[in-house]
Amino acid sequence: MHLVPSSSGAICFLINEIVWHTVNSMFTVLAGLVGFFLFLLGSCIGSFLLVIADRYISHENPFLGRSKCDYCNKQLVWYELIPYISFLIQRGRCSSCKKKLSAHYPLYEALCGVFAVVFLQQAVLLGQGIFLASAMFLVACVLLILIRIDLLLMLLPDGFIWVLIAVSCGIAGIAHAPFSDIAFGLLAGVGFLYVLWAGTGGAGIGFGDVKLMIPFGILFGFRGTVTLLFLAFFIGGIVGILLLSTKKAGAKTAIPFGPFLAIAAFAIMLIPDLPHRFFQLLGVE
How far apart are the first and last CA of the chain? Predict the structure, then answer.
């Protein structure tokens, strides 16, 4: 026997469906608007990260003085500072000297915009975990700065690493990370790279890379740190082979390792279960 719902019951069911779909659509629109705003905000922050990195390299204060062209030193007007739009309008060239602008600008803006959405969108929509999400976004921002500096100077400044250490300790505290996992993460990361640094007399790797493993060991623990090292060496190996095969580098060409460590860290931050998958692949799980 089939039960036929009453007309009032059918109406209530229909109203509930309409309300549910309406709320779901509104939430989807809200999520899109928040994501769009965060992407724009992150893009603006990404542009400023390049200013911080470049002015560190030139020994200038990033908070003083207006932005200017890297070639002719022309001061930029406000519309030349708008992410993406200014680059497209000027067709990737300075409006004064017509020199080609670096692709780092839109690249950093886009990366930072994506990181802002990935790390902050859910926390903003749910109204919880905002501090932790902001801390992870800050880690990504500092790593972007370090990538730029290391590529140009072969240097990882202590000041930025100290910021990473402080933020990583805060994240570990909020997440109640086991002390033993942090200790083994530090031993695996710092210990391994220190042995490599000492064994090669600093020729194989820089001491800044050793110090960079301190916040990574705290942040990712033992399995995350092991996975990070594997990814960094794997990516670095591929890039090295490509540079050698295209004759853009020789056997004795120094290549900074910090960017590979940072890229590997991004991978783990974006895919939190990556260490678990890696150890499953090794058959250790």
Answer: 52
- Residues 205, 247: one domain? yes
Task: Give the mean model confidence (pLDDT) for residues 171-188.
Answer: 94
With beta carbons less than 8 A apart as the criterion, state whether 101 and 95 touch.
no
Query: pLDDT tens across 65-118, in order?
Result: 677 766 676 676 656 666 766 776 676 676 667 677 677 788 889 999 999 999
Q: Residue 21: its pLDDT value, please?
A: 67
Looking at the 3D structure of the chain, how many domains does it have? Answer: 2
Instruction: Supply the pTM of this predicted model.
Output: 0.86
Residue 119 and residue 173 in one domain: no
Domain shared by 202 and 114, yes or no: no
Position 188 scores a pLDDT of 95
- What is the amino acid identity at position 139? V
- The domain of 233 spans 154-285
63 in a domain, yes or no?
A: yes
C-alpha to C-alpha distance for 26 and 22, rounded to whole angstroms: 6
- Residues 95 and 185 occupy one common structural domain: no
Task: With respect to residue 146, please indicate whether it lies within any of the assigned structural domains.
Answer: no
Q: Is 88 exposed, middle or buried (0-12, 13-18, 19+ CB in 10 A)?
A: exposed
The reported pLDDT for the residue numbered 112 is 94
Does one domain contain both 124 and 167?
no
CB 149 within 8 A of CB 57: yes
**What is d(CA 284, CA 161) in angstroms, rounded to the nearest whole number?**
32
Q: What is the mean pLDDT of residues 218-229?
A: 96
Any idea what DSSP says for residue 223?
H
Q: What is the DSSP string of 48-96?
A: HHHHHHHHHHTT--TTSS--B-TTT-PBPPGGGGSTTHHHHHTTTB-TT
